[in-house]
Amino acid sequence: MNREEALRLIKEKVHKENLIKHMIAVEACMRRLAAHFGADEEKWGLAGLIHDLDYEETKDDPSRHGLVTGEILRGLGVDPEIIYAIEAHPGHKRPRSKLDWALFSVDPTTGLIVASALMHPSKDLGQVDTDFVMRRFKEKRFAMGANREQIKACSMLGLKINDFITLCLEGMRKVADELGLGGE
Ligand SMILES: [Fe+2]
Fold it and tell me: Where does the chain cross the membrane (predicted)?
């Protein structure tokens, strides 16, 4: 499956614009992390791009979230390592590989970064720095949906949180306009 095919599938199954933005943000972080680790950027990017394909369908039944996507992708012959990472990201399987841990920890991090950018006076990811996001990270009541423990799982990649945030920010800046966070 290439990126175009993935986007076509996403357009069929995902209707909320914010969810598509979330998937694009996760893709961007995954690509940046893959580059950092010398891993396959296309593969990591695809896992990020399509990881919430079934979200709208399973939102009332979280026990199926990720697994439905796994079924669809298996039928399309997608790389089993991508499928495993997607099934592991909501906790159905234990993350094992770097790809798994990256998707697991990136998922809530994009939400934290988007919320941080939205409260930054510039609303511009290019002007939001790691320190700003780290201060928001430490505010327990800020963007409470962004699970801090899950973000901290970046340690499984051998990364300190601030280095992990820096990489995610770098990735997301490349798609800032698509995310509506390119400043006003
Ligand atoms: Fe997600």
Answer: none
CATH number of the domain encompassing residue 42 = 1.10.3210
182: in domain = no
Q: What is the C-alpha to C-alpha distance for residues 57 and 99, in angstroms, rounded to an integer?
A: 25
- CA–centroid distance, 126 to ligand 1, in Å, is 23
Domain membership of residue 153 as a residue range: 3-177
Over residues 34-78, the pLDDT tens digits come to 999 999 999 999 999 999 999 999 999 999 999 999 999 999 999
Residue 173 lies in a domain: yes
Number of domains the chain is built from: 1
CA of 12 to the centre of ligand 1 (A): 17
Long-range contacts of 80-87 (CB under 8 A, 24+ apart): 81/43, 82/43, 82/46, 82/47, 82/50, 85/47, 85/51, 86/47, 86/50, 86/51
183 domain residue, yes or no: no
Mutual angle of helices 41-50 and 3-13, in 10-degree steps: 0
Instruction: Kindly list the protein residues that place their beta carbon closer than 5 angstroms to ligand 1, a single-atom ion.
Output: 52, 107
131 CA → ligand 1 middle, Å: 24
pTM for the whole thing?
0.97
